[in-house]
Structure prediction request, 110 residues.
Amino acid sequence: MLRTSVRLGLVVGLLLGSATCGPPADIAVPRQEVNDRLRAACPDESDVDIEAIIILVETDVDRGYTKQRVLDLMVADCIARDFADDATTDACITCVTIVVDEIFNPQDSE
Prediction:
């Protein structure tokens, strides 16, 4: 489904594009941790893949994007990937929707 190398490449690209020159300690560490709700929503993804999605979403949140804007960007990414079948695209959309919801509504995840 979501390719680790592509996701991590996006994360690195986002971080390099918005990061200042600094020590490696400046690398983003997600505030939201991978949990069972996210694993259930993204069953084809490893924890590392889910963490990469979390970092992408948190980066957009830090830029001041609204929940709807972040969701639109993530869904557009799923659609742009042109997966072989609609079920895979739907699984991608479900996964990113739950990740976005989890980050914008952390109290709902308890």
Summary: The helical segments are 4-18, 36-41, 47-62, 67-80, 86-104. The chain has a mean pLDDT of 79. The longest helix spans residues 86-104.
